[in-house]
Amino acid sequence: MPGLTEIFDDFRIVRHIQRRLPLLFQIAELESSRAGKTGMEVGSVREKIIIALLMYKFGETNIETDLPITEPEADVKLFGRPISIKTITGNSLSGVKLIWTVDAQKARVFSETYSPKCDILLVQINWGGEGGMYYIPLKVQEMIFQEVGRHQYIKLPKPGTNPRGVEITKTALTKLTQAEDSKRIKIEWIRKKEVKVNPYRRWVDLWREESHEA
To answer: How far is it, in rounded angstroms, from Cα 102 to Cα 67?
Structure first.
């Protein structure tokens, strides 16, 4: 059955991602910005861009986005197989969240019961430098989880801080991305100067459409 490896093994798709993804993510940031600061909603827009890539490659009928709440780690399904989409910003592979929560007790319970459950598609954004897109299969996560152990795989927020979630440790993430069965597409994150975005134009145009309601 086709899977995510096809993206990383298809030279045409690889080149397309290298050329287009920085531009699309730049547009996402512009649409999610206010007074020069990027809002938290940019994460949802980035996720939609990656899902749209899967639809472009594999066809919309093979992508499932309306997932039940019982699958909190999965963001999309490709041919019925769950995938978690994650993005991080910076030149270091760190800070990847397993779960977003401000509840310390919930974070602790999660860390004690967690085990890998789905493939990961990770995008490292590094404006002005090199980042990439990574495919980390479930079997690789299971192997590294067993190798380093729960407490070396999972990073809890420091007590007394304002926690934003439970993370994969930098050590574990390095092993995950460098594993033999993981895949990577190198991406140069260069911003285009001429890009201008009006985040309201689409909605204004929709308001202008003639209504056919009774």
So the answer is: 23
| Lookup result for tokens 């798709």 | 13
Nearest CA among 146, 72, 156, 143 for reference residue 112 = 156
Of 136, 131, 134, 135, nearest to 187 (Cα)? 131
List of domains in the chain: 5-189 (3.40.600.30)
In angstroms, the CA 23 to CA 153 distance is 33
Strand boundaries in 71-115, DSSP class E: 76-78, 81-89, 97-99
In 86-186, which ranges are continuous DSSP H helix? 104-113, 138-148, 150-153, 170-178
Across the chain, which has 214 residues, the per-10-residue mean pLDDT values are 88 96 94 82 93 96 88 90 94 88 83 94 97 97 96 84 80 96 97 86 85 58
